[in-house]
Amino acid sequence: MMLENVQSPLVEPVTESDLLMMLRATLDPEIEIVEQRQLTGGLFNTSYYLATRHPDHAIILRIAPAASKHNTLFDYEKTMMAAEPAIYDLMRGVGIPVPDVLAIDTAQRVIPRHYILLDYLKTTPMNDPAVPE
Asked: Which of 52, 64, 89, 93 has the most crowded CB, counting CB atoms within 10 A?
């Protein structure tokens, strides 16, 4: 089953079996998905909220655009995900709350796209109408 595309033309959903394959290859071979939903609001990455069992965890999975979409990106945009762990470390060092990086695959070992798995932090996006001016 293909999950619904709810974003920009750069966003490209993956199958449910791909989601499970990424989790099992990078986190735990026994992991199970108990909840999944594609997130909105991104321009480049396809993002999912995943709740898992074995272990119990809430995860954000962000998947970079497919190589077929790379001709629409600037060179630095093609490698931005690889820099995220270092950026999060810098931000954490000055007291900014950021998620822990659980795993990152920029070598495309599991699927032919870069992806990053992050601990879920319950937050409100700054462009959400609930955030006061």
From this structure: 64
Of 88, 6, 1, the closest CA to residue 43 belongs to 6
Q: How many residues in total does the chain contain? A: 133
Residue the block writes with tokens 């319950």:
122
Residue pair 45/63 in contact by the 8 Å Cβ criterion: yes
Assigned token pair, 21: 């394959």
- Is omega for the bond preceding 55 within 30 degrees of 0, making it cis? yes
Note the pLDDT tens digit of each residue in 47-101.
999 999 999 999 999 998 876 556 667 777 777 889 999 999 999 999 999 999 9
pTM: 0.83
Separation of alpha carbons 85 and 80, rounded Å = 10
Q: Write out the two tokens for 89.
A: 């470390």
Which tens digits make up the pLDDT trace of 5-54?
A: 444 666 778 899 999 999 999 999 999 999 999 988 777 788 999 999 99
